[in-house]
Amino acid sequence: MNATTTSPVLHDDSIERLGALAGLSERLLDLARDRGATQAEVSCSEEAGLSVSVRMGEVETVESTRDRGIAVTVYFGQRKGSASTADLREESLVATVEQACAIAKYTEDDPAAGLADAELMAREVREFDAWHPWSIDADRAIDLALACEQAGRDADARVENSDGASLSSGRSLSVYANSHGFVGRERGTQHSLGCALIAGRGDAMQRDGWYSFGLSSNDLESPAAIGRRAAERAVGRLSPRQLRTGEYPVVFAAEVARSLVGHLLGAVSGGALYRGASFLVGTMGTQLFPSWLSIHERPFMPRGLRSSSFDAEGVATRESALVENGVLQRYVLGSYSARKLGLETTANAGGVHNLEVSPNADGVDAVLAAMGSGLLVTELMGHGANTTTGDYSRGAGGFWVEDGRIQYPVDGVTVAGHLGEMFRRIEAVGADVDRRSHIRTGSILVGRMTVAGEVTDGG
Questions:
Q1: Can you tell me the distance from the alpha carbon of 393 to that of 48, in angstroms, rounded to the nearest whole number?
Q2: Could you tell me which residue ranges the Metalloprotease TldD/E central domain spans (predicted)?
Q3: DSSP per-residue codes, 119-154
């Protein structure tokens, strides 16, 4: 986005600040050791950012943030205590460690408690092109947000109102250290620009929007392109129809398809599994998806949104398959949940690091052609996915498709099914990957789902 790179680059002291955080972490570990802790771990972070919002050509909010945090966890054998602070004074650091130690002494032994095994610590900590600070000031940020909103309002006369535009830019520094001698340093930036517009009048109004997100401001779409895309989406939703309740093929557009992968992650995460709160308990090694579908974790992806050499416990990350040829290869585990399950950590304490879903089709047009007739979902509402039972029911909006082509917008419907059946019924994944998430998938065609609407002549 050339228009956003005109601000001068200020002095970058991030390396020095990371060094200071690392020194602070080691000081806290020493304090814990001196008080008898058998193991300890420390997380230190600094964050700074700028966000602005505008609406109908007027500035609504301007916010500059600067936060820091320190979290200390100590273990006395298998008794655990944690405390946190944002105060860097020596007396506060001492008090924080002492509070964590006091808590540990009053807790019960937990056989699964403790640091991840020392031999699993990352030996090499690399960067993955995630540090791109943007020296933008509030005036420039406001100008870009105003330009984005104005481009959308000017794009179509049917856009008569706005929910506003916003720009945000943030940077973060973090250090994780533990008594195994591991010290991991990370730095990253995130920037976004988007707007939401309202087309039509009265009861016929429809709202939609668009946003762009990246680790570098150069990765953002231009304000004009974002505004026009938001207008196109809002206008495209005008005069929606409802559908006759029935079973139809459903395509989840790329921007909502990643939620299906998110439900899979929730069901195969260690916490849900050892509590028995997942419909996928005991399914490792079984066929969950069609044989052509694979999902791989890529922690070393340059400029990946979740790239890292280590997880939240210092364990070395690794490229691996979550699903291979439709078969669930492993769960998503940190060391605690792994011990509870009698398994080994998968280096996923704190979450997954960039997932890629393998496509078997070209863009969304190819996926719609494969569907023929059915529902294209571009918006999901509510929280109707239960990963304990697998039941799925969510409000949805989108478009009715016939012969692979969009016919008219659809609103006020519910799509329902069971996640296990939905996974097995996936017929196509497009190459139209939405890169605004660490879950990288294109549009997904589920061969059959229940779509609840009203009995009408449409559909």
A1: 38
A2: 132-238
A3: GGB-S-----S--------HHHHHHHHHHHHHHHHH
Condensed to tens digits (0 to 9), the pLDDT of residues 374-409 reads 999 999 998 889 999 999 999 999 999 999 999 999
CA distance 335 to 344: 7
Give the angle subtended at the CA of 250 by the CAs of 247 and 256, to the nearest 5°. 140
pTM over 0.85: yes
pLDDT at 457: 44
Asked whether 316 and 248 are in contact (CB, 8 A), the reply is: no
Residues of the chain with CATH 3.30.2290.10: 2-235
CA distance 76 to 218: 48
Where does the pLDDT of residue 121 fall: very low under 50, low under 70, confident under 90, or very high at 90 and above? very high
Cα–Cα distance measured from residue 367 to residue 446, given in angstroms and rounded to the nearest whole number: 10
Task: Classify strands 444-452 and 426-429 as parallel, antiparallel or unpaired.
Answer: antiparallel
Distance CA 111, CA 253 (A): 44
C-alpha radius of gyration, the chain, whole number: 25
Query: What was the pLDDT predicted at 1?
Result: 57
Q: 2-235: what fold?
A: PmbA/TldD fold (3.30.2290)
Gap between the Cα atoms of 425 and 377, Å rounded: 16
Structure tokens at 40: 């300890």
Rounded CA separation 329/307 (Å) = 21
CB 167 within 8 A of CB 51: yes
Give dist(CA 321, CA 328) in Å, integer: 8
CA-CA distance, 377 to 372, in Å (whole number)? 14
